[in-house]
Amino acid sequence: MTPTVHQDFDEAIRRIDEAFGAGYAKAHPELIAALVKAAAFDRVERVMKDVDRVRKALTELSELLEVMEEPGAREAPDDRDV
């Protein structure tokens, strides 16, 4: 399950207070904001990697379909022969 911004916020407070003492996060909201922003960037990075994997798979499928549609093509090339 993907964390929500509320979960990121709560986790940031917990980690800051754990590292610097109870109440430190409340006194330094800029640290909370920085950790929530970092969590969002990490999530975007993971999504972009997933998008890239899907793009590569679709490109491979498209190329395979082109080969299969060529006149005289009877079967798909077998990667196991490589």
What is the strand and helix layout of this fold?
Layout: H1 5-20, H2 24-27, H3 29-69
**Number of beta strands:** 0
Number of helices: 3
Instruction: Please state the overall shape, judged from the principal axes of the Cα atoms.
Output: rod-shaped
Secondary structure category: mainly alpha
Description:
This protein is mostly helical. The protein has 3 helices and no strands. α1 crosses α3. The two termini are 38 Å apart. It has one domain. The mean pLDDT is 89.
Protein traits:
single chain; 82 residues; mainly alpha; 3 helices; rod-shaped
How would you briefly describe this protein structure?
The protein has one domain.
